[in-house]
Amino acid sequence: xRYFVTGGAGFIGSNYVEHLLRNVQGVTGVTIYxxxxxxxxxxNYSEFSNDPRLSVVKxxxxxxxxLESSIAKHDxxxxxxxxxxxxxxxxxxxxxxxxxxxxxxxxxxxxxxxxIKTIVHVSTDEVYGSIHxxxxxxxxxxFPNSPYxxxxxxxxxxxxxYVKTYGLDVRTTRSCNNYGKYQYPEKLVPxxxxxxxxxxxxxxxxxxxxxxxWIHVQDNCRAIQLVLEEGSAGATYNIGTGQRVSNxxxxxxxxxxxxxxxxxxxxxxDRLGHDFRYxxxxxxxxxxxxxxxxxxDFGLKLTxxxxxxxxxxxx
Length: 315
Ligand SMILES: NC(=O)c1ccc[n+]([C@@H]2O[C@H](COP(=O)([O-])OP(=O)(O)OC[C@H]3O[C@@H](n4cnc5c(N)ncnc54)[C@H](O)[C@@H]3O)[C@@H](O)[C@H]2O)c1
Fold this sequence. Notes:
The protein has 315 residues and is of the alpha/beta class. It has 11 helices and 12 strands. The chain has a domain of 220 residues: Rossmann fold (3-Layer(aba) Sandwich). The two termini are 37 Å apart.
């Protein structure tokens, strides 16, 4: 089977490529299709550079001729490519609308024209907006609050329309926050590790009580593969763990694993439109047989060790 992985040089995409090449049976080809924005890093897949199954195309999902010629002759498309940082979308949302909405439209059209069997569209829990109590399943309405999450919600709706209008087998995953190796150091977990490694205070928005649900990236990659192999055509799957902590608690956990004081925190003015809490009901993916394998503290320890041992990747 031949896989076309958009955004495969970024954080989750490169972990997924590693999962495919290491653990998945019957993989005859993997194409990374990536624009190589600031968030991509060729070191993320360099250990597979001699694997004859891997090829890499530097291409933009908004460059239709290059996309169409590259996507041909693949069985599956796993669509990770996106602008992904909420703060950047608040500064300027233009690239988010272009890559996340128009880019996803191009992926859907190119997949339809190329006769791709199944597309997995990788989305986020942020499309549901802030969930003040309980948890939400896949039927919950989309109430995005940032330009990033609005652009992802737009891409989800386009994916849905291709299922209904053309009968294209597009499966959408909405995962909670990922952590693990290869995450660009602007995101919360690497920011915490980096600051604490220099014994500097960690900046936290507002009063630090905002709650996020967390999954280790390798568990998310397994879940995405399960959706591809066992999911229903055209269905949407939340991918969560139930592991929900406030940002302050996250800092405390990482501080404790690193053997640091837990009071190295600097409260800064809140992010505009900051969602208070995300919480997923992940029964649908559980019904496919998914359960997260990586315990939160153990996964954080693995991640801390990776960042501390791979200074050259991120400094
Ligand atoms: N990181 C998380 O916690 C999280 C949680 C839920 C969902 N997601 C979703 O997962 C996907 C991957 O997220 P990530 O954290 O790995 O992001 P990332 O920013 O680390 O990587 C994104 C990759 O997409 C590429 N890209 C961006 N625009 C492109 C374009 N126009 N054409 C081709 N390539 C382009 C970048 O070069 C980069 O390699 C995104 O769709 C994101 O919305 C992320």
